[in-house]
Amino acid sequence: MIFTNSNSLFSFFNDFFSKFNLMDFNFKKNNLAFVFFTFLLLSSCSSFKQDIDKKEKPLVLTTFTILADIARNIAGDRLLVHSITKVGAEVHGYQPTPSDLVKASKADLIVENGLGLELWARKFTKSAGNVPTIVLSEGMKPLLIEGDSYAGKPNPHAWMSPLRTIHYIDNLVEGFIELDPSGRKIYMRNAISYKARLLELDKELRRTLSKIPINKKVLVTCEGAFSYLTHDYGMDEAYLWPVNAESQVTPKRMLNLINVIKERKIPTIFCESTVSAKAQIEVARSSGAAFGGTFYVDSLSSKDGPAPTLFDLQRHNLRLIQKGLESGISQNQ
Ligand SMILES: [Zn+2]
Fold this sequence. Notes:
Rossmann fold, binds zinc ion, 11 helices, alpha/beta, 333 residues
């Protein structure tokens, strides 16, 4: 294997080891470290070879599974699309592995969400040897996080509203055409049909959510990941923490949410698949609300789960919202 930017790779591994306190000495000067480094690279390469075919097609890496699903729909069979993070992974605070970096160094294009979602991605991309990168939210006017310690920062979860996802598609098509100009017609045709499906989903969301009684139109989640959905479909939102992070659960945040639930008489509250629902179940118990089940937001589910595609994800969440807020009955999932 040939690395085009060995210095970048070297500094990534150095950072990687220092971060995890595996080694606190200079990597270059220690033979043992070199042996370990080589072993890691070789083992990464062998699994990488199994994952990726012989590069007959350009390789596109996305930062998380939802973007990979969108990208595959637009790419058809012209491009090989993989997600760096796996199903169920927490994308906000993800720590790339040496194997991720080997993959990235082979990529022809990296696709990011932006809006501060993947804080790890910029350094990662640079370490991978400056692979061309596109940011799907580029040019979009973001919603800002209100209150709490993240106040004023853009909310990154724009893919949760189908009308905003259309914006992602335009940026993706532009990036794919630049990567593979002869696929232009195919990308544009796939984009037209994917956008039509998003518009159908938009109508379905609007129709279903409009039937929820006005006093129950409050979506309570663990992370404030539904701001675009609630904003675009006429709902209010409340959450335990604004963005998934290490110190997300605090007694103050729990108490504030319990008060909102009691004041607004919210019948059902929810949490997401990539975080622990423990604190939210406690909030439900203390506030008298039902726990309505697990939403998918920052990751798809596995293929045999309820949300293997973005459309399945949206419809799964919609079903839980409808059941939880129309009737107030817990789904206990
Ligand atoms: Zn999130």
